[in-house]
Amino acid sequence: MTLNTRNLGTDSSLTVSALGLGCMGMSEFYGTADEGEAIGTIHRALDLGVTLLDTADMYGPFTNEQLVGRAIASSQHGRDVVQIATKFGNERLPDGTRVGINGRPEYVHAACDASLARLGVDVIDLYYQHRVDKTVPIEETVGAMAELVTAGKVRHLGLSEASAATIRRAHATHPITALQTEYSLFTRDIEDEILPTIRELGIGLVPYSPLGRGLLTGTITESGGAAGDGDFRRSAYFPRFQGDALAANLALVDNVRALAEEKGATPGQVALAWVLAQGPDVVPIPGTKRTRYLEENVAAAAVQLTDDDLVALEKAVPRDAVAGDRYGDMSHIDA
């Protein structure tokens, strides 16, 4: 199948595939990396019409942007059919040391130039502030990002994990095209204030971890499963994967599995179909480094959920039933 497209943003609109590809795990965090397999997965994504590729300078660090750049350069598809989204703000050193969140204007410019060089392109389609720097007024950070648009280095601006108040201030400085934040059947807190705010302002939503970091695929088990040794999801930083919380969350996944079987689909496909059904301004970016999971995710776009299905899913996974915070340390989230 070939995916349809959706539009992110109204004041500064970007047309992208209805489903994007999160590339983070191809370089770090999700076990052993295999560049050949990763590049093959990106090539297959482009063949299937998945044209929004999501990366960030901190993934690797730095190596994921290089990988995405090599994959685009070696693809049979031209640069003009790809929408590259990358991010700055989570500052790391080459050895992986985390420096902190940086939204200073001079850093914005330096980070963008470095990303362009690693990606091997002249312009970034969607440039996000990865995390809000609470020590720098958002107007200053977005003002610097707007200068990148004027310079022709960036086409559209985005924010990630920003509060409703920050989003309003940012959008008043320069049109924001998309907000990237966690959203899935397992994480729905943005529905209270953030989602209504971005819809009022005409900002698109790009949910990351739309499969609950893999929990909703049904491939995670209490003994490990798809999240084996070397996988960061098994660390204390992700409470939903620990002990009793994991057992409780896997029971919710079983509920999704039962509904998926009725649809002739996998739990992950039904979970992705639920996210896609939340509106035409929603473009999830499930991450994978394997072609078979990519193809399964793309097939989710063909899963039709009725109103009754949506109600049943929300009963199967009550909003407040998920056990554990999504991060062990939530201090980096702009609340």
TrEMBL record:
The cross-references to Gene3D superfamilies, in alphabetical order and at most eight, read: NADP-dependent oxidoreductase domain
| Domain of life, source organism | Bacteria
Q: What Gene Ontology cellular-component terms does the record carry?
A: cytoplasm
State any single GO MF term: oxidoreductase activity
Q: Which UniProt keywords apply?
A: Oxidoreductase
Is the Oxidoreductase keyword given for this protein? Answer: yes
Domain NADP-dependent oxidoreductase, chain residue ranges per copy? 19-316
Q: Which PROSITE patterns match?
A: PROKAR_LIPOPROTEIN
**Which Pfam families does this entry report, sorted A to Z?**
Aldo_ket_red
What PANTHER family has UniProt attached to this entry? AFLATOXIN B1 ALDEHYDE REDUCTASE, ALDO-KETO REDUCTASE YAKC [NADP(+)]
What protein name applies here?
A: Aldo/keto reductase
